[in-house]
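Much of what follows relies on a compact textual record of a protein's fold. Each token is a code from a learned vocabulary of local backbone shapes. The record below shows the convention in full.
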Amino acid sequence: MRSMRLLLVAWGASILLLSPVAHGAEPSSVDKARIARTIATGSRAEVERSISQIKQMGAPRDLLRQVALLLQEGDPRARKNAAYVFSTGAYPSVKAQLIEALSDEDEVVREHCATALGRVRAPEAVSALGRLTSDRSPVVRREAAKALGHIGSKAAVPKIVPMLQDSSPDARIAAILALGALRDKSAEKNLLPLLQDPSETTRLAAAKSLCALDNAEGRKQVEALLGSPEPAERRDGIKLVEDVKHPWIRDAMLGLTGDNDLNVAIAAARGLALQGDARGVEWLVRSSQRVAPQSVLKIETVLEDLQLSSADRKAILARKPSPGLVLPPLEQER
């Protein structure tokens, strides 16, 4: 049961190694050509190293154009590798090539290009991605639904609704979550029956999307998790809706920072931070000064994920605590 919940919460090397691109240095045309050749012919590990170098260079447009040419002119390996490169970052300068590649005969290329277009939130891709919601590949259908949810165009709703009957569980869940992300109230009538679905994963996905639509029935389901006597269920409830921004969710997260289970409190503080409430980060910083060492590591991992700077940390500790902030007892676990 728990594993099902967590599903929701819930994507030339030798030459390069001998001649690395110096961090901060202006990349030469030779460096760029080597990287493009590696992407055209390399293994996944070699392509991963090339991706790191592209990011280190600041993603030069001329190099991205070279890689994008592989989507049109490369052999199957080159096209797959190029599509994968673009799926790992946001590269709006190649949107046109990515949209064209959505019709590639290789499903891996279609999958990665759909992911890439979702990353750049390209509204001009909605029509082409909509066609992929009936693709023969369930993985492509899943990624198309995800991308449409990220783009956020309500014009995609009529294409996504039929996917609620998709034969692939993963594609079906992606469609449910996409409808929540699109925030179109007309989707409520399609999502409400799914609260009674035999699949717990489906029920929870529907509850999350209905919460995004500010629907009372979805909220009731989530509140039951957040108020569960089981700490694991409370944590799962937090994870489920931490990225759904509503005042009642923020208030629930704030209340759970005072939970008797420290792991629940840490998850709630993280969720509160993701809701955009600075008290979540403040709770984490101040609590890191109070709990036992084994819990400090958990808190520091969250703060690292939230990319808190040392200057921000010092500023938080230098000011008075926010009113009503409930911190754990000193060295709770000792």
The chain has 21 helices and no strands.
